[in-house]
Amino acid sequence: MKFQIEDVTVYFPYDHIYPEQYSYMLDLKRALDAKGHCLLEMPTGTGKTIALLSLITSYALCKPSNPVKLLYCTRTVHEMEKTLAELRRLHKYQLDHLGPAARILAIGLSSRKNLCINPSVVTAENRDSVDAACRKLTASWVRALAAENPRVPTCEFFEGFEKAGSDGVLPPGVYTLQVIGMFVDFDGFVVFGYEFGDSVALDLRAFGKEKGWCPYFLARHMVQFANVVVYSYQYLLDPKVAGIISKEMQRESVVVFDEAHNIDNVCIEALSVSVRSQTLEGATRNLNKMSQEVERYAPIFNCYICRLVKLGRLFSFMGYSID
């Protein structure tokens, strides 16, 4: 359905809207007009995600001279996928009514573990292992060695993306993180990387395999050009991660924190350090060993220090200054 909220035409991909959704959109629209902050709450199951996406994307369509970039932060990968699924349906509805003028680029950015397509890397046990295996194949010093010695392993997908250069871009569309099997979409289409007319709804990993490009580094490159970016809180709140990923984001962005009551826990986690007991025990052993070595060589050091002091006094007595 299509309706007006003050001077904005809202495109909403369902036949009915709850009063709570309309009230939510109205408050959100006024917050955007004021370029301020807002804290909104809706009961579970009343469609806050689609209400928010519909209002913000419609707001951007109605004000093309002042483009709005949406950064949508979620807590989990599952919530990220749900948001992209809602956005995909909304995008199709907008294209049906507005044609190519409604085209956008929307991507979900996640960790290497969720986006990697290199078989030798993605099979690692956990996220840290995947990150480490990826860096062993893509680090600049590794690639420099590989240029001299072809037997040094590198990642074919990262190399393919690098070779693509300026052609390594995503066409407009809504890109999900991955497709788990096949399922039937809202409109009866079987989904496994498909097109809705002008709207591309692709699995980012499938696109990477088709092009021979690394989906992770492709997504990182495209976040600065995308109209909508869906990623986890850490990409914006963790200083270490935000300094790499989000520093190029335009200042005129609309930032949404879904399930915002989790922000404090995420901030605490981002600025905390976890140390295992085994690490502390190892550090204690090393300190004890160092202490023993210091005690062992202490008499020799003291002897040298005494000689240096005497030598210094002798030079002073002879009229030499020692700095």
SSE topology sketch:
Elements (H helix, E strand, L loop, with lengths): L1 E4 L2 E4 L7 H16 L13 H15 L6 E6 L2 H22 L6 E5 L2 H4 L3 H4 L4 H12 L1 H9 L7 H9 L8 E4 L6 E2 L5 E2 L2 E3 L2 E5 H8 L3 H8 L5 E5 L1 H4 L1 H7 L7 E5 L5 H8 L6 H41 L6
Parallel strand pairs: 3-10, 3-11, 4-5, 4-10, 5-9
Antiparallel strand pairs: 1-2, 6-7, 8-9
Describe the structure.
With 323 residues, the protein is an alpha/beta fold. 52% of the residues lie in helices and 14% in strands. The strands form three sheets. The protein has a seven-stranded mixed beta sheet with strand order 8-9-5-4-10-3-11, sandwiched between helices. It has a two-stranded antiparallel sheet with strand order 1-2. Helix 2 packs across helix 3. The N and C termini lie far apart (84 Å).
Can I get a quick summary?
The chain is α/β, with parallel strands linked by helices and 323 residues long.
Please tell me what the overall shape is: elongated
- Quickly give the structural class: alpha/beta
The N- and C-terminal alpha carbons lie at a distance of 84 Å
- Return residue spans where pLDDT drops below 50 for at least 5 consecutive residues: 180-201
Quickly count the helices: 14
**How are helices and strands ordered from N to C?**
EEHHEHEHHHHHEEEEEHHEHHEHH
Number of strands: 11
Major sheet summary line: 7 strands, mixed
Helix content: 40-55%
Mean pLDDT: 84
Keywords: ATP-binding, Hydrolase, Nucleotide-binding
GO molecular function: ATP binding; damaged DNA binding; DNA helicase activity; hydrolase activity, acting on acid anhydrides, in phosphorus-containing anhydrides
Protein name: Helicase ATP-binding domain-containing protein
InterPro entries: DinG/Rad3-like, DNA/RNA_helicase_DEAH_CS, Helic_SF1/SF2_ATP-bd_DinG/Rad3, Helicase-like_DEXD_c2, P-loop_NTPase, RAD3-like_helicase_DEAD, Rad3/Chl1-like
